[in-house]
């Protein structure tokens, strides 16, 4: 593997701090490195490989579309894009859609849409938030170490304390275009919003007439034991950003909006060359269909409860939180646990010095959970 590390360093900008492993093959919940070693994947491409690796039905659908049509641009209509929007209307409850290629792009589009629809400029985001690394998405991302090297960013932006009704009430006003939040904060360590907090957010929306943007990039498509995390709260945002699990690892993102927001948008105000191309849309349609056929939303809820139970039994785990198969655990030395787990054939992710994140494929079952917990319990 060292040869591959050296080759990578010679040709790549060193933006990433990668784990010391080179993968060449995946099957189900498992990955294989260049030396043939097998690993249980509890990261799933950061909550993206919904169906696991190389799901046969997914591969068949995408392969079939590769033989038909890959890309023509949005100068023209294509059938998969229309079919995907119709399916998303059914499962999201949103009314109209725009397609792009990633979560950051979906957030960028959401911010632009909010400004155009309201005629206002100000955004309110939250402590612990992470919305992406492009300039607009970065502007509403909490950590200063991400933002500071690239300032000046989009302004005005104010940050309120996550889950603090009192601080939220101080930050929103008549100048607010939109409040953007993750219903479950992923990069912060998997922290769900409280129902009280969400209820107050929507009350304030009605009072000040701003828009609510839900960033469901990480929480969407069954990850939390519901199709989307908003269902845990019984609310409908004005704008919803989607990506990651949307194509089970194939790059695609999207934005859903209410009819009231859509009516205020005009042709030419936003676009994407590759967004919603036929291949990406078929990958997303196949993902959704397989989730439905194999009842993976239900499995996410059931297996997620089992994962939480098993983690709570472990020595060294101080707190377990999350929904469905989006679980965070508080530990003493998360990066060290990630390294030692890798040596034993388990992939987990550290979001901070004391937080592990578990976001396995939605096909994971008790066998995979038991294997993962056995490895974690063996770490010294």
TrEMBL record:
<feature type="binding site">
    <location>
        <begin position="103"/>
        <end position="104"/>
    </location>
    <ligand>
        <name>pyridoxal 5'-phosphate</name>
    </ligand>
</feature>
<dbReference type="InterPro" id="IPR004636">
    <property type="entry name" value="AcOrn/SuccOrn_fam"/>
</dbReference>
<dbReference type="Pfam" id="PF00202">
    <property type="entry name" value="Aminotran_3"/>
</dbReference>
<feature type="modified residue" description="N6-(pyridoxal phosphate)lysine">
    <location>
        <position position="244"/>
    </location>
</feature>
<dbReference type="InterPro" id="IPR015424">
    <property type="entry name" value="PyrdxlP-dep_Trfase"/>
</dbReference>
<feature type="binding site">
    <location>
        <position position="133"/>
    </location>
    <ligand>
        <name>N(2)-acetyl-L-ornithine</name>
    </ligand>
</feature>
<dbReference type="GO" id="GO:0005737">
    <property type="term" value="C:cytoplasm"/>
</dbReference>
<dbReference type="InterPro" id="IPR015422">
    <property type="entry name" value="PyrdxlP-dep_Trfase_small"/>
</dbReference>
<keyword id="KW-0808">Transferase</keyword>
<dbReference type="GO" id="GO:0003992">
    <property type="term" value="F:N2-acetyl-L-ornithine:2-oxoglutarate 5-aminotransferase activity"/>
</dbReference>
<feature type="binding site">
    <location>
        <position position="273"/>
    </location>
    <ligand>
        <name>pyridoxal 5'-phosphate</name>
    </ligand>
</feature>
<feature type="binding site">
    <location>
        <position position="130"/>
    </location>
    <ligand>
        <name>pyridoxal 5'-phosphate</name>
    </ligand>
</feature>
<dbReference type="GO" id="GO:0042802">
    <property type="term" value="F:identical protein binding"/>
</dbReference>
<comment type="similarity">
    <text>Belongs to the class-III pyridoxal-phosphate-dependent aminotransferase family. ArgD subfamily.</text>
</comment>
<dbReference type="InterPro" id="IPR005814">
    <property type="entry name" value="Aminotrans_3"/>
</dbReference>
<dbReference type="InterPro" id="IPR015421">
    <property type="entry name" value="PyrdxlP-dep_Trfase_major"/>
</dbReference>
<keyword id="KW-0963">Cytoplasm</keyword>
<dbReference type="GO" id="GO:0030170">
    <property type="term" value="F:pyridoxal phosphate binding"/>
</dbReference>
<keyword id="KW-0028">Amino-acid biosynthesis</keyword>
<feature type="binding site">
    <location>
        <position position="272"/>
    </location>
    <ligand>
        <name>N(2)-acetyl-L-ornithine</name>
    </ligand>
</feature>
<keyword id="KW-0663">Pyridoxal phosphate</keyword>
<comment type="pathway">
    <text>Amino-acid biosynthesis; L-arginine biosynthesis; N(2)-acetyl-L-ornithine from L-glutamate: step 4/4.</text>
</comment>
<comment type="subunit">
    <text>Homodimer.</text>
</comment>
<feature type="binding site">
    <location>
        <begin position="215"/>
        <end position="218"/>
    </location>
    <ligand>
        <name>pyridoxal 5'-phosphate</name>
    </ligand>
</feature>
<dbReference type="InterPro" id="IPR050103">
    <property type="entry name" value="Class-III_PLP-dep_AT"/>
</dbReference>
<dbReference type="GO" id="GO:0006526">
    <property type="term" value="P:L-arginine biosynthetic process"/>
</dbReference>
<keyword id="KW-0055">Arginine biosynthesis</keyword>
<dbReference type="InterPro" id="IPR049704">
    <property type="entry name" value="Aminotrans_3_PPA_site"/>
</dbReference>
<keyword id="KW-0032">Aminotransferase</keyword>
<protein>
    <recommendedName>
        <fullName>Acetylornithine aminotransferase</fullName>
        <ecNumber>2.6.1.11</ecNumber>
    </recommendedName>
</protein>
């Amino acid at each position: 593997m060292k040869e591959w590390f050296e080759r990578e360093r010679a040709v790549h900008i060193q933006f990433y701090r990668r784990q010391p492993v080179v993968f060449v093959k995946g099957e189900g919940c498992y990955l294989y490195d260049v030396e043939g070693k097998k690993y249980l994947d509890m990261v799933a491409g950061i909550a993206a490989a919904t169906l696991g690796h190389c799901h046969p039905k997914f591969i068949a659908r995408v392969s079939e579309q590769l033989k038909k049509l890959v890309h023509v641009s949005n100068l023209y209509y294509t059938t998969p894009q229309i079919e995907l929007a119709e399916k998303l209307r059914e499962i999201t409850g949103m009314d109209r859609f725009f397609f792009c290629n990633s979560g950051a792009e979906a957030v960028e589009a959401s911010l632009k849409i909010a400004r155009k629809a309201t005629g206002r400029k100000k955004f309110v985001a939250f402590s612990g938030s992470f919305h992406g690394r492009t300039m607009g998405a970065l502007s509403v991302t909490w950590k200063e170490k991400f933002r500071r090297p690239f300032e000046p960013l989009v302004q005005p932006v104010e940050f309120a304390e996550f889950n603090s009704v009192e601080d939220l009430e101080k930050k929103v006003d008549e100048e607010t275009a939109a409040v953007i939040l993750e219903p479950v904060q992923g990069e912060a360590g998997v922290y769900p919003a409280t129902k009280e907090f969400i209820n107050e957010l929507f009350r304030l929306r009605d009072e000040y007439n701003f828009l609510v943007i839900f960033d469901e990039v990480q929480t969407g498509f069954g990850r939390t034991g519901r199709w989307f995390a908003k269902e845990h709260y019984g609310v409908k945002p004005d704008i919803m950003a989607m990506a990651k699990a949307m194509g089970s690892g194939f790059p695609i993102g999207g934005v859903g909006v209410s009819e009231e927001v859509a009516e205020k948008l005009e042709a030419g105000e936003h676009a994407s060359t590759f967004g919603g191309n036929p291949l990406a849309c078929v990958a997303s349609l196949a993902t959704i269909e397989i989730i439905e056929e194999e009842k993976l939303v239900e499995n996410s809820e059931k297996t997620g409860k089992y994962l939480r139970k098993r983690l709570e039994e472990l020595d060294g785990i101080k707190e377990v939180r999350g929904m469905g198969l989006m679980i965070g655990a508080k530990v003493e030395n998360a990066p060290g646990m990630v390294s030692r787990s890798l040596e034993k054939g388990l992939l987990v992710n550290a979001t901070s010095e004391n937080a592990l994140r578990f976001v396995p494929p939605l096909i994971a079952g008790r066998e995979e959970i038991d294997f993962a917990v056995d490895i974690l319990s063996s770490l010294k």
